[in-house]
Structure formats: structure tokens, C-alpha cells
Amino acid sequence: MTDASHPAQTAEFLPKIVTVLREGYTSRDLRADALAGLTVAIVALPLSMAIAIASGVGPERGLYTTIVGGFLVSLLGGSRFQIGGPAGAFIVLVSACVMAVGVEGLILATFLSGFLLMAAGVLRLGTYIRFIPYPVTVGFTAGIAVIIFASQIRDLFGLTLAGPEPGEIVGKIETLWAARGTVTWAAVAVALGVVAVIQGIKRWRPGAPGMLLAVVLASVAVAGLGLEVETIGSKFGALPNLPPAPALPVLDGAAMMAALPWAVSFALLGAIESLLSAVVADGMSGARHRSNAELVAQGAANVGSALFGGFCVTGTIARTATNVRAGSRGPVSGMLHALFVLGFMLVAAPLAGFIPLAALAGVLAVVAWNMAEKEEFWHLLRSSRADALVLVVTFLLVVFRDLTEGIVVGFALGGLVFIARMSEAAEVAGAEAPDVTGDRVVVRLSGPWFFGAAARLGSVLEKIADRPREFVVDVSEVPMIDSSGARSFLLLARRMARRDGVLVVAGARPALRAALEAQGLRGLPVRFVPDLSALD
């Protein structure tokens, strides 16, 4: 590493708050960040508890996650406006993890995922995570939206189940349908009222905290009318006034092996979700995030969250967008948002016991509807068969199989589509009607020459009836070549040698020529010329 490169590589991991402070941070900036932080905290309060309950843990753990994780994401992160906390995208994984290894296993998996995320950042993998194809992100986001909504049907209708609610969606729907006779119409009314209030405020007063106002109104209505609706207090008891003291999770070998697969899933989804959120913030603000610094911060936030009894932390798109729109000047607003939530726990935690679960289910139903990216989904279905295939396969795997499986398979399909399209971009001009001059045949290649296109060169000779003594390949329009593409030239050179002919490569750039010679062309009858005009 040179001295010149060291500062640039160090800056890659520099938290954005350092940059903001270096630029000059004034009291006016602090006032703007305080207002933005308060606005985001108002949005985060009901969402944090709703996501925690939907994930199969107590609402207090959602608040711990917001307070500790949200503070660390803003303090250490590589995005100027990122807001961290529990995210709806994790509901599926977290609830499945709780069912498989319990709450202690969830905390351990969160703890381990933090170190995986930090390692990904140190290894500079953040740049590559952003290359996930767009149909994959739309497919898994829409799939998550469907699963989030399905997870709220029980509380939306106030159903009483005969047994535990299955995690997989087919069994879930069957169980919920079997309990259709236990609908609590008061819960339905509360949920519909919350949705109506949120949508009404969004339309007529878009700057107002619709979710919080809807939950408050629902809580007052249930308490004032004495409605028989399940609340946070009736199900979980009173919320604590403070997060617990930090404590390490159980780190014995068996527990760690059981938690590790979940940790890998948390790290993968957390990296994708947080970097997508940072990209959204960049688009709204014109700023530019540091992806690897962001991954390191997300890792530290997950470790910190686990130490205080919280669960998965990631960048949250809705809260981050709210932060930007509220006039945030930098990471201080995210840190203050976490402190405002802590203030709520200190002052008003007992009031949370009056919140109806149907109200929180209504909030998440709205979240699921908003995150589904419906217009993008239909646009991709109509754009091309390949993109539609990637989209639908990802969506169906996320809904009916597994979130991580959907991402991995969708990414693989997207890669195959890309390879096929790049192969089509590589052209062999002159194969059908070769430029023949005496014993010489000239073929022109264009486009990237990699393993997806290499087979075309081997088939060129099959299309030429004559047996030329000199086969000229013009590569002046080939921008890159991989080892498979270079090997196709080696096979061609050997074939020409067996015919007592010679292969001529024209217009090869230095890097391309080096790749060809590395495959062993030096010992074969091969000539390199600068261009076609240099031919004898």
C-alpha cells in the first residue's frame, strides 16, 4: 500500500458524522436535526413496537433495537441521513428464528450477524452487494409485503386460534381460515379506523405523524368505549422504563452453531436493506454514502442491539426518507431520534399498555401496502420475459419458501440473464459472408469476449468451406476478454497450426494481448498486427 492510497482507503471507513463536523456544524444545524429527529421518532415509536410484536417478541425489544441500534447506525455510519432500527423486511426471518431457536437464540444470531456485517465491510463487499438486479429487489420486497400482511391477519380480525400460528404462509392461511368463526368485530373496526386515519392524514395533512395519531386515537377509543380488544398491556404486561443493562448472549458451541445460519441470513438481508436505504437517501438528498463504512456501522449496531436485548438492526427506507424530508442536516438527527425514543420509555412507557394490537396491525398493513412497489412490479412484468421470470421466481420463493433462498436464486437467475444479454452483445462479423482475399479470411469481433460468447469463435471455422492459410481476427472493438474467451483463441490457433496455417490477431490492446499470450499463444503460429492496414 502506498502512502498516497492510504488516506483514500482510510476515508472509505470514515463515519459521516466526522465529515459533517469538519464542514462546520452550527446551532442552526442542531435545531434542524432536533426537529427531524423528533419527527422520525414519532414515526418510529409505533413501528418499532409493531414490528417487534409481529416478529414474535415483546414490544420493548423493538424499542431497545431503535434506541441502541439507531444511535450506533447514525454515529458510525457511512450515510449522512440513514436511520437504523427494526425493519418490516426482517419480520419473516425474525419470527422464524424465534420459533426455531427461541428469543435467546435470536439475540445470539443478531450478535453474530453484527460481526459478519463488520467483516463484510472490512473486506469491502459493500460495493458488490449493490449489484443485485433490480427485479430481485422488487420481487423480494413485494414478497416481504405479502408475508407481513399475512402475519397481521390474526390481529386485524381479532382471531382466536386453536393452536400456534404456523410460520409458512400456506399453513398460516389454513389455520387462520379455520378460525374465521372467532372474528372480533371490534378489532376489525379498530384496524379499519387506523388505516382510514393514516390514509386520510396522508392525503389532507401529509406532514402530520399519521401513524402515531392513528394509534393514539385508537387507544383512546378502545379505553373510552371499553371495547373487548387485546392490547399490549393485556398480552405483554407493562413496558419497562429503561433498557436492561448490557449482557453478552450465551456463547456455547451448540447455541452458536444453531444460531449461525440465522446470523448469515440476517447479515445478508441487513446488508441489502441498509445499502438500498442509503441509495434512496442519496437520491433524495444528492449526497453520496460510503457503503463499506455503512456495513461496519450496521455490524456494530447489531452487536450493540444484542447486548441490550434487542434484535436485528438495519437501515430503514421509510424512516430514512422521513428524515431527509424533515430537513435533517446529518447523522445527529438519527442519534437524537434514538434519544427521543429513550425519552418516551422514561416518561410514557405505561401508556403503551393501552395500545390495541389491532391498531398496530393496521399500521403494519399500511406499511406492507406501501412497500409492495406495485407499479414497479407490473412494469417489470411487462418489460421483458427475462426480467419477468426473475421477478416472479424471486417473489414466489420469498412468499412460499424462504427469503434468503429467494434472494440467492433470483440473483443467480439475474446473472444468467445478464450473461445471455452480454453474449448477444458480442458479435462475429464476417462469419456468414467472410472477407476472403486469396488464402486469407478476415473476421471482425466486437463486444466483450467472455465465456458466454467464446463458443461463437469456435463455430466460425465450421461456417467457412475453404481452408485458408491465414485466418485474421480483428479485435479492435473488443473492450475486454476473460480466460475462457482467450482460450477460444488458443484452440483456434492450434486448429490453424494443424492446417499449416497461421492466426493473425489485429488491433489487440496491450491488456487483451497479454491475456491471449498468457494462454500459451507464444509457441504457436500467431502474429499480432496493430490493425488490418498492417496486413501484407
Description:
It contains 22 helices and eight strands. With 536 residues, the chain is of the alpha/beta class. The protein folds into three domains: 5-19 and 26-374, no CATH class; 375-424, no CATH class; 426-534, 2-Layer Sandwich (Transcription Regulator spoIIAA), CATH 3.30.750. Strands 3, 4, 5, 6, 7 and 8 form a six-stranded mixed sheet that branches. β5 (440-446), α20 (454-460) and β6 form a beta-alpha-beta unit. α9 crosses α16 (357-371) and α12 (253-285) packs parallel to α14. The chain starts with a helix and ends in a 7-residue tail after the last strand.
Q: How far is it from the N-terminal to the C-terminal residue, by CA?
A: 47 Å
Task: Count the E strands.
Answer: 8
Number of helices: 22
Order of helices and strands: HHHHEHHHHHHHHHEHHHHHHEEEHEHEHE
Percentage of residues in DSSP E strands: 5-15%
> Which class best fits the helix and strand makeup?
alpha/beta
Q: What is the residue-mean pLDDT, rounded to a whole number?
A: 85
Residue share in helix: 55-70%
If you compute it from the alpha carbons, what radius of gyration comes out, rounded to the nearest whole angstrom? 29 Å
The major sheet is characterized as: 6 strands, mixed
User: What overall form do the CA principal axes indicate?
Assistant: elongated
Low-pLDDT sequence parts: 1-6
Tell me the number of structural domains.
Answer: 3
Secondary structure blueprint with pairings:
Layout: H1 5-11, H2 16-23, H3 27-54, H4 59-76, E1 84-85, H5 91-122, H6 126-129, H7 134-157, H8 169-178, H9 185-204, H10 210-225, H11 232-236, H12 253-285, H13 291-307, E2 314-315, H14 317-325, H15 332-348, H16 357-371, H17 374-383, H18 385-400, H19 403-425, E3 427-429, E4 435-437, E5 440-446, H20 454-460, E6 470-477, H21 483-498, E7 502-506, H22 510-518, E8 526-529
Parallel strand pairs: 5-6, 6-7, 7-8
Antiparallel strand pairs: 1-2, 3-5, 4-5
